[in-house]
Amino acid sequence: MKRLLQAPNLALATLWADQLTAAGFEARVLRAYASGIAGEIPPDQALPEVWLDDDSRHAEASAVFERWMHPPERRWSCPGCHEVIEGPFEACWNCGSPCPAAPD
User: Fold this and answer.
1) Which residues are CB-neighbours of 69 under 8 A, at least 6 positions away?
2) Domain identity same for 58 and 83
3) Average pLDDT over residues 19-31
4) Which of 42, 60, 73, 93 is the most buried (most CB within 10 A)?
């Protein structure tokens, strides 16, 4: 097992581990309930962590997680009204036409 990342709270750690598992990685949350002893141990040591079962897939999982946290910028022109749309939107805010590259 190898640590992938430390999460700021249990909710995010669980969400990230579940997303990684759905993407084909064996991930688990460790230190899930260590926040109860913060003060007895340093606070940064009491945060939950996401660990991978397969050490050899650490770089691959890190790359996938990085893409999730920093998606590429998107900009497209609406085929219906020619409005320029920026961001993760799948439909035009002005006329409702779907993005030409949006998955069905």
Assistant:
1) none
2) no
3) 95
4) 60
